[in-house]
């Protein structure tokens, strides 16, 4: 991203007939209020709401920020500084976005700055930590413009040391020994000596492809004949020319030469010499030029030609959705796994695009986008954008700008896609709407993308379709009250039926000494049978790593994280111990540091151990693992899913990533290794999550006409939830769960806000929590405030934790007033000298 700085010096007081403008800006900082800056008079016509400007904040710090409002009222509390720089002459943030961002900040009890910081791709943000680097095209000895003494000093520093060295704005100021250095940077940029970026990994630049074409004076037939004769003694160069002409038929149409071909087409050919290509360029036979291209595949809309026909059941469901949209803004599509909801989504997207609107299609996991994007690309081609955190910042900016320009009319993405600059939404689809992955935990804003999507659609007058085989209890409750419409798909698409579910008692297998590692005979036998039929298997274990912990058999020592109150998990392939909360890792000890014994053993099991065990027990099977450890790389999801789709992998072992919406035609067996760890979790949503997870992962089996089977390993097969899973009876589960929620005062009948107090001193943390609880009780009443208490994991990243739970009425006025009381109570505690170092986190609607 290149910027042209026009830093403006403060102007004298304007004459009486001049209008002095002020701009309220959103700084990317956790500030409770907007800050007001003065607009230089000469730039009055350039200021735009939603555009970016550069301002000075504090003594040395410069930041880019978003203009939220323009007016003529100066601030009373301080003298407004001048805006230093106007980056944009058009908004990068739309008015509907600003409205949504204000709602997010208000509802989730955070600041607008925190929302902007989360919403904008890094390449759209600049700060005093922005960096200066030498321009790649700058050659010091042949610079066309003279450099001043200060400019020479910066160039000398950047030229010394390793390639790609850079300086922050702060370092430039320190180097020159002056407070005002922006003019020097501006001058160097104008001379193409340096460029700016936020971080090395965040530089935005369009994707450029090198192309070549035949020099224009060789296009004529006579000139070509002469060229052939000249190159006859040079067969390697002649081969390059002939390959070019095979691809670009200049004889038939000389205008085809103008676009040329990618240079890589010639240099990567196995029988051609790259040096011969470069020689032809050097001698003027070929011309090399750069072309900016999209970072996204299938950018030619003519390739979007996939057509399909909805089944009778799908057509009825689609028609019912459209009918309900005439009276309701939100509709729930409750369809069993494999019912064909995606095809209905695609049909509805087509209708919305035909009407000239935009569409946002949300998915809970990046893994799902890897599979569904291919299908949607074939339908919508270059009109489809994809947005998620595995994309580089360049790619995210390209999608952001594509939505602004109208290039991308439909975007598929994970939760961060709700921040994109839509301004003409017609339809929002939230698939797998029940998923907890839609919830952002840290840092602020701690939003739920499903709720944000609903509000965004409301602001823009769009319709929202929620889809799930196992809807969230709160969502289904809204259909019962009549607020949401409900459409049900009760049968799988085509000939596929629901899988057979079998419970296997691990306790009995262990007593009979029939367990092999962590597999019952029933599951192992079923896997062998399916593999012999060339069918595929998915195994679900909701814990990654090799084992949850190791211990010393002789003295009982267990390695703990130095920053968190948890044991370290053992990862065999990396041969190290890791904390899954803070990332701390240490080498696997050879002997016990407590007693010196070498008798160390791993306890429990995760996905890595299951993968290793299977490779020993079923050596002929190709086993692959999908969890956080194996999907860190950008394209790892696509690679793992692609291998499984192409049946290069026989068994896929994974965490909850494998439970969500994936569609594999050849999977006939799903195994749930340890169901009990999911059910027995200390949370009011534990049974809901367990039911959803079991039903969802079961839904991966028996699609496309194959009869599927699911084996659930459990030590407690009489658990009431299993009966509902086996019968796939969501309604019975809902009736049971909603009764419990009503009786104990949980959502959807109450709003819940969880406050977390953090402090590096355990005693001060407890005292601050007790004081805060007293303040809250005084304002909200004892019945609304639960706690404080230490959570199960009471220390994370060296901070001790205390939790306070607040239950409130769902009435909007009550909630708004309560949030004001909560903030007031937090400020009372913050003002106490002993608790200045305490941190207070508000999580609205925790999951």
Automatic annotation (TrEMBL):
Its EC number is 5.6.2.4. Its cofactor is Zn(2+). Residues 584-754 form the Helicase C-terminal domain. InterPro entries: DEAD/DEAH_box_helicase_dom (IPR011545), Helicase_ATP-bd (IPR014001), Helicase_C-like (IPR001650), P-loop_NTPase (IPR027417), PriA (IPR005259), PriA_3primeBD (IPR041222), PriA_3primeBD_sf (IPR042115), PriA_C (IPR041236). GO terms for cellular component: primosome complex. Residues 322-489 form the Helicase ATP-binding domain. This is Replication restart protein PriA. Keywords: ATP-binding, DNA replication, DNA-binding, Helicase, Hydrolase, Isomerase, Metal-binding, Nucleotide-binding, Primosome, Zinc. The keyword Iron-sulfur does not apply. Component of the replication restart primosome. The gene is priA. It is an enzyme of class 5 (isomerase). Belongs to the helicase family. PriA subfamily. Zn(2+) 2 binds at residues 561, 564, 579, 582. Binds 2 zinc ions per subunit. Initiates the restart of stalled replication forks, which reloads the replicative helicase on sites other than the origin of replication. Recognizes and binds to abandoned replication forks and remodels them to uncover a helicase loading site. Promotes assembly of the primosome at these replication forks. GO terms for molecular function: 3'-5' DNA helicase activity; ATP binding; DNA binding; hydrolase activity; zinc ion binding. It catalyses: ATP + H2O = ADP + phosphate + H(+); Couples ATP hydrolysis with the unwinding of duplex DNA by translocating in the 3'-5' direction. GO terms for biological process: DNA recombination; DNA replication initiation; DNA replication, synthesis of primer; double-strand break repair. Zn(2+) 1 binds at residues 552, 555, 592, 595. It comes from Hymenobacter telluris.
């Amino acid at each position: 991203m290149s910027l042209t700085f026009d830093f403006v010096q403060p102007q004298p007081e304007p004459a009486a007939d001049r209008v002095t403008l002020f701009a309220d800006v959103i700084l990317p900082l956790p500030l409770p209020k907007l800050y007001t800056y003065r607009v230089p008079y000469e730039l009055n016509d350039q200021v735009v709401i939603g555009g970016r400007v550069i301002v000075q904040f504090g003594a040395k710090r410069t930041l880019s920020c978003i203009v939220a409002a323009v007016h003529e009222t100066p601030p009373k509390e301080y003298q407004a500084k001048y805006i230093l720089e106007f980056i944009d002459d058009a908004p990068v943030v739309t008015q509907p976005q600003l409205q949504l961002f204000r709602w997010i900040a208000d509802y989730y009890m955070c600041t607008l700055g925190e929302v902007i910081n989360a919403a904008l791709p890094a390449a759209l943000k600049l700060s005093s930590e922005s960096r200066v680097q030498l321009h790649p095209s700058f050659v010091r000895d042949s610079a066309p413009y003279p450099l001043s003494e200060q400019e020479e000093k910066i160039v000398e520093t950047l030229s010394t040391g390793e390639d790609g060295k850079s300086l922050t704005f702060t370092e430039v100021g320190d180097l020159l020994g002056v407070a005002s250095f922006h003019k020097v940077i501006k001058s160097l940029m104008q001379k193409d000596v340096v460029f700016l970026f936020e971080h090395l990994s965040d530089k935005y630049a369009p994707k450029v492809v090198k192309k070549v074409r035949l020099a224009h004076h060789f296009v004529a037939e006579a000139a070509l004949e002469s060229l052939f004769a000249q190159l006859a003694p040079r067969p390697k160069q002649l081969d390059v020319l002939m390959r070019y002409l095979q691809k670009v038929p200049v004889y038939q149409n000389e205008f085809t030469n103008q676009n040329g071909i990618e240079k890589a087409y010639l240099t990567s050919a196995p029988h051609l010499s790259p040096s011969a290509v470069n020689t032809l360029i050097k001698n003027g036979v070929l011309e090399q030029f750069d072309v900016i291209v999209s970072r996204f595949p299938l950018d030619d809309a003519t390739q979007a030609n996939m057509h399909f026909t909805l089944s009778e059941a799908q057509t009825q469901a689609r028609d019912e959705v459209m009918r309900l949209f005439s009276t309701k803004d939100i509709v729930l599509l409750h369809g069993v796994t494999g019912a064909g909801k995606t095809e209905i989504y695609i049909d509805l997207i087509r209708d919305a695009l035909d009407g000239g609107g935009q569409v946002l299609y949300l998915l809970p996991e990046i893994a799902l986008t890897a599979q569904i994007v291919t299908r949607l690309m074939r339908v919508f081609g270059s009109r489809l954008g994809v947005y998620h955190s595995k994309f580089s910042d360049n790619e995210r900016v390209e999608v952001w700008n594509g939505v602004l320009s109208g290039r991308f009319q439909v975007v598929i993405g994970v939760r961060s896609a709700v921040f994109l600059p839509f301004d003409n939404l017609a339809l929002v689809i939230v698939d797998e709407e029940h998923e907890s992955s839609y919830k952002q935990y840290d840092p602020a804003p701690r939003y739920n993308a499903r709720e944000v999507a609903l509000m965004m659609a409301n602001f823009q007058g769009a319709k929202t379709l929620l889809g799930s085989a196992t809807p969230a209890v709160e969502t289904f409750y809204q259909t019962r009250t009549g607020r949401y419409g409900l459409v049900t798909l009760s049968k799988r698409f085509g000939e596929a039926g629901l899988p057979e579910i079998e419970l296997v008692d691990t306790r009995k297998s262990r007593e009979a000494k029939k367990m092999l590692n962590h597999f019952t005979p029933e599951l192992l036998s079923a896997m062998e049978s399916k593999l012999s039929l060339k069918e595929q298997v998915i195994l679900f274990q909701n814990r990654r790593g090799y084992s949850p912990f190791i211990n010393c058999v002789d003295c009982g020592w267990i390695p703990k994280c130095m920053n968190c109150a948890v044991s370290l998990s053992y990862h065999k392939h990396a041969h190290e111990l890791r904390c899954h909360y803070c990332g701390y890792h240490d080498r696997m000890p050879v002997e016990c540091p407590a007693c010196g014994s070498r008798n160390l053993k791993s306890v429990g099991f995760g996905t890595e151990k299951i993968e290793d065990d299977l490779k020993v027990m079923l050596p002929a099977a190709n086993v692959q693992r999908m969890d956080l450890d194996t999907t860190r790389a950008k394209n790892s999801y696509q690679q793992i899913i692609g291998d499984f789709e192409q049946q290069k992998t026989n068994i896929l072992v994974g965490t909850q990533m494998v439970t969500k919406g994936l569609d594999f035609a050849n999977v006939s067996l799903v195994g749930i290794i340890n169901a009990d760890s999911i059910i027995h979790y200390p949370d009011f949503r534990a049974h809901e999550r367990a039911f959803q997870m079991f039903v969802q992962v079961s839904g991966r089996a028996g699609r496309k006409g194959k009869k599927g089977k699911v084996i659930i390993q459990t030590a407690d097969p009489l658990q009431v939830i299993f009966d509902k899973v086996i019968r796939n009876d969501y309604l019975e589960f809902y009736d049971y769960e909603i009764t419990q929620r009503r009786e104990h005062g949980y959502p959807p009948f109450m709003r819940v806000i969880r406050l977390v107090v953090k402090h590096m001193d355990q005693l001060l943390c407890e005292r601050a929590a007790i004081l805060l609880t007293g303040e809250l009780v005084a304002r909200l009443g004892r019945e609304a405030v639960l706690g404080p208490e230490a959570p199960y994991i009471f220390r994370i990243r060296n901070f001790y934790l205390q939790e306070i739970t607040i239950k409130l009425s769902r009435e909007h006025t009550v909630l708004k007033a309560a949030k004001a009381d909560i903030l007031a109570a937090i400020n009372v505690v913050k003002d106490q000298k002993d608790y200045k170092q305490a941190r207070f986190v508000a999580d609205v609607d925790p999951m």
